[in-house]
Amino acid sequence: MNTYSPLYEYLRASGREEVLIAFSVLEKVLGFALPKSAYTYKDWWANGGHSQASVWLHAGYKVDKVDIHGKVVIFRRIDAIPMPKAQDKKTRIVPILETKISPVAPKSKTIMACGYKFSFIQELVPECDAEGTIIKYYPQNDYANKKGLPLSEYGKGAFCRFSINAGAWSGVYIWVADGQIIYIGETVGLRQRFNMGYGHISPRNCYKGGQSTNCKMNKVVFSSYERGEPIRLYFHITADYKQIERELLGTIHTPYNAKNNHLSL
To answer: Does this model's pTM top 0.85?
Structure first.
């Protein structure tokens, strides 16, 4: 919860698909004046990366349009994610997720990690042919490689393609496989991070100097699905994504966040 929490209650109580609200009315809802940047920069109203955005996103809305000159903003309904309860850091629960016991139920809609609630987004399912076989892609073959760069450790072999149906939310994501947290990451935009990063490998990333993490985790999705254990993706919307990611990684050991780890594919 943050200083913009009254907006959460206002939007949730409206129940409307579209909520048009003047800046002056919004200030009455909040109980204080909006910052000068809200009156001058459209980026202040961006759907991610700011504490105010986490409030309306949790309420189940996004900013559809904002008229700086007219001092009006339009919120449009999206799927809501429950607003987490405020907790004192001293009393946060340290989860048993770091143990070898499988703590996450197979079909859990939410999981708790370090006192933060993560909501299930979807399973990471690769594109398959009519027979259900994963379609293989070899993006490394599409790179001109004029400098003769060698392939990276994870840039070899076949990759899959997959996408998620999610908003451009900022926050922290968790990958769960076989009841265990296997990977933790942060992002300023969830949809783009997966659909243009992990799920669609850029040819350049297959070579030394590229973003090898995308290649590594794409292969995790590929191999997990082949074993009949698709990855389950969970997400916590927050503007404090970097701090919360550090907090989780300092508590929970995962096999794929460790440096110099090797895949067994």
So the answer is: no
105-114, 202-211, 249-258, range with the lowest pLDDT:
105-114
Domains of the chain, CATH where assigned? 5-77 (no CATH), 89-249 (3.40.1440)
Report d(CA 105, CA 147) in Å as an integer: 48
Give the CA distances from residue 53 to residues 4, 20, 241, in Å, rounded to whole numbers and listed in that order: 9, 16, 13
